[in-house]
Structures are given as structure tokens and as C-alpha cells.
């Protein structure tokens, strides 16, 4: 089904910086594999802020940002039109997009649903436009049906934050009851605690903030480790076959690798500002591994959505109601809360009809 060209109202970063403004752009042509979606909700991810600030250029391993930039890769909405080659979706259906918008669709990784590791990985936005907009058109092969059990405002953060922590837990499987450590109780960590608990692990929340212990336990932690306490860190030496690092702060890598059990893994999901620096002996002794993990492929996203629907995994959100072409100040206020780590724990825009 084709759809006539339309002008899209959006919130865009017009140049490198920390705020968005009202902006309009022509919707791209609806090519055969593209799906057109009217956006109802979009989560605000810290990655949006990095992209708006053009912070991933140079030796970071990322790429320069293209401006104007319409961010947003935690997108929920309703299908309004389908390209000629699109299958499995229908007009009026509730769907979602995550961080990825393209891959080669030809390599072995793509063939097994690991498109997130394809060397031709392309983000949902930049140079295309994301979900801080009334309408989005993107590759239907990275579009997902949303389970009825999960409200739109709560499923939006799952499309990026949720799959980011679900993927390493599902990839590096352990026997039930195994000890798993979750570093950081924030936008990623509060979801990781829930997933790990529902997968049957003995979960320890690891944080520099003792005040978060009660909340961590309410989210699924069985134990709490204050990483600012040297005695507690020493007492948990070699204790965890798997640790998921979800924070963005800089840490003492030797101390944290000391927590990893022999032949265990320390999975990096968060993006610390400083480079990883660890003594080789903390890797050689016990044959320990530091592993990276980037979002998740189509297979993981489908499994994550089904798991969340079945087990009641839900993000804690702050909902911000905005109008199309209005309320840029509200969006910028929410971006500030996320940037300053004041959001508890994900901000989600809800667009007024």
C-alpha cells in the first residue's frame, strides 16, 4: 500500500548541542521494505544525548552525527501504510522499533538473527530520522509486533534498554540459581535486575549508593553489594560467574574483575567515559573474560518482548505528554533529567492526538 508524501512535525537537534527545537521534514518515499508508523510514544535514551552532542566521533569507535538530527529509537506507534514487499504487518497494528534500522541481510550473523553484530549495522536514525516525531518510516525487517499485555509507555524503553540487558543474560546462560551481579541501578540496571531474577538466578545488585538497596531488592535483587566498601568487595572475591555492567561511571576495573569467578565473564553494556584499564593478571588468573554487548538482534528482541509479557518485566518510567509541533521545552526538560541521571528510571514521551 502506497502513501502520499507528507510533512512530518518533529523535535530535532539542529546542530551539536543539548537541546531540540521544533522542526519539519518531508517523509521519505515508502520503498518496498519500508513501513510507515504514526508515533504515539518514544523513550528518551542516553544514547540520544550522546548523538545530539556529537560525542561519538574520533577514537570513540563511533561516527560523527549528521544534523539536523531527529533522535529516538524506543519508538511505539500504529502502522499507517506498508511498502509493497512488507509482510507480517497490517494497517492499524501496534508496533515498535529499537536502536537498529538496517544491516546487510546477507551474512551469517544476519541469517541467525544477530543483525546487531553485522558489520553493516545501521542505526534507526542518523542519517534517517527517529521517533521524536509524529511519523516514522523505516525498514519493516526491524519493526516488531507489540504484545497486548504491555502498555505502550512501558514497552518503549524495552525496545533499547530492555534488549540491551536481556541479550547478555540470554547469551551467557548459566544453571538456575547461579550468582549474577548487576552493576548499576539505573535505566539499564533496574531492568537487568528484573530479567535476571525471572531467569532464576541469585541476583546481587552492585552499587556505590547504599540508599538504593531497598529499591534494588524490590526489583528482584536477592543481595546488595556496596562497591564503595572495600571489605564487602573483598568478601565477594571470585563470587560471580557473570556480571553485567550497566553503569556509565568510571570504575576500578581491577577491583571489579576481582569479583568475577574463575572462567567467568564481565559483560560491558554501559558506556564509561574513561577507557577500560585492567591489569592482565586479573584476566589471566582464573581465565576471566571482559565481553562487550550491543543491544540485540531481531531474534533477541522478539524473545525479550515475549519474556517481558509473560513475566511482567516493566521499566519504571516518567511519562512526558507533548504535542506534535509543541512542547519542545518539556522534551528539553526531560533530556536534562536523563543527562543528569535524575530520571527514575526512563523518560517516555507520549504524543497528544
From TrEMBL:
MF terms in GO = oxidoreductase activity, acting on the CH-OH group of donors, NAD or NADP as acceptor; zinc ion binding
Q: Does the keyword Cell membrane apply?
A: no
By sequence similarity, the record places it as follows: Belongs to the zinc-containing alcohol dehydrogenase family.
Give the organism, scientific name.
Capsaspora owczarzaki (strain ATCC 30864)
* A Pfam family annotated for this UniProt entry: ADH_N
Tell me if Oxidoreductase is a UniProt keyword of this record.
Answer: yes
Q: Which domain of life is it from?
A: Eukaryota
Residues annotated as domain Enoyl reductase (ER): 17-349
Q: Give the cofactors, semicolon-separated.
A: Zn(2+)
Q: Which PANTHER family match?
A: ALDEHYDE REDUCTASE
* Name the record gives this protein: Zinc-containing alcohol dehydrogenase
- Which PROSITE patterns does the record match to this protein? ADH_ZINC
Which CDD domains does the UniProt entry name for this protein?
CAD1
For this protein's source organism, the top of the classification is: Eukaryota, Filasterea, Capsaspora
Q: Which UniProt keywords apply?
A: Metal-binding, Oxidoreductase, Zinc
Amino acid at each position: 500500500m502506497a502513501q502520499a508524501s507528507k510533512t512530518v512535525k518533529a523535535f530535532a537537534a539542529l546542530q551539536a548541542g543539548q537541546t531540540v527545537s521544533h522542526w519539519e521534514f518531508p517523509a521519505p518515499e515508502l520503498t518496498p521494505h519500508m513501513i510507515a508508523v504514526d508515533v504515539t510514544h518514544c523513550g528518551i535514551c542516553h544514547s540520544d544525548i550522546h548523538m545530539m552532542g556529537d560525542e561519538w566521533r574520533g577514537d570513540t569507535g563511533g561516527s560523527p552525527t549528521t544534523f539536523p538530527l531527529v533522535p529516538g529509537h524506543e519508538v511505539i506507534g500504529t502502522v499507517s501504510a506498508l511498502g509493497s514487499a512488507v509482510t507480517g504487518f497490517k494497517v492499524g497494528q501496534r508496533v515498535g522499533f529499537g536502536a537498529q534500522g538496517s544491516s546487510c541481510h546477507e551474512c551469517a550473523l544476519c541469517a541467525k538473527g544477530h543483525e546487531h553484530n553485522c558489520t553493516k549495522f545501521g542505526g534507526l536514525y542518523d542519517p534517517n530520522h527517529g521517533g521524536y516525531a509524529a511519523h516514522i518510516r523505516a525498514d519493516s525487517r526491524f519493526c516488531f509486533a507489540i504484545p497486548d499485555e504491555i502498555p505502550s509507555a512501558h514497552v518503549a524503553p524495552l525496545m533499547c534498554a530492555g534488549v540491551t540487558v536481556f541479550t547478555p543474560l540470554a547469551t551467557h546462560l548459566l544453571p538456575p540459581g547461579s550468582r549474577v551481579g548487576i552493576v548499576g541501578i539505573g535505566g539499564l540496571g533496574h531492568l537487568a535486575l528484573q530479567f535476571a531474577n525471572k531467569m532464576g538466578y541469585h541476583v546481587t545488585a552492585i552499587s556505590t549508593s547504599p540508599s538504593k538497596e531497598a529499591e534494588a531488592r524490590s526489583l528482584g535483587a536477592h543481595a546488595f553489594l556496596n562497591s564503595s566498601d572495600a571489605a564487602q568487595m573483598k568478601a565477594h572475591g571470585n563470587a560471580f560467574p557473570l556480571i553485567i555492567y550497566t553503569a556509565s561511571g568510571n570504575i576500578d576495573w581491577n577491583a571489579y574483575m576481582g569479583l568475577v569467578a574463575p572462567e567467568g565473564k564481565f559483560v560491558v553494556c554501559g558506556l564509561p567515559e574513561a577507557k577500560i584499564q585492567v591489569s592482565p593478571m586479573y584476566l589471566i588468573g582464573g581465565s576471566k573474560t571482559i565481553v562487550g554487548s550491543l543491544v540485540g538482534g531481531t531474534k533477541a528482541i522478539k524473545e525479550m518482548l515475549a519474556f517481558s509479557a509473560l513475566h511482567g518485566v516493566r521499566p519504571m518510567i516518567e511519562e512526558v505528554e507533548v504535542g506534535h509541533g509543541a512542547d519542545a521545552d518539556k522534551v528539553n526538560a526531560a533530556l536534562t533529567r536523563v543527562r543528569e541521571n535524575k530520571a527514575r528510571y526512563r523518560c517516555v514521551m507520549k504524543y497528544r492526538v
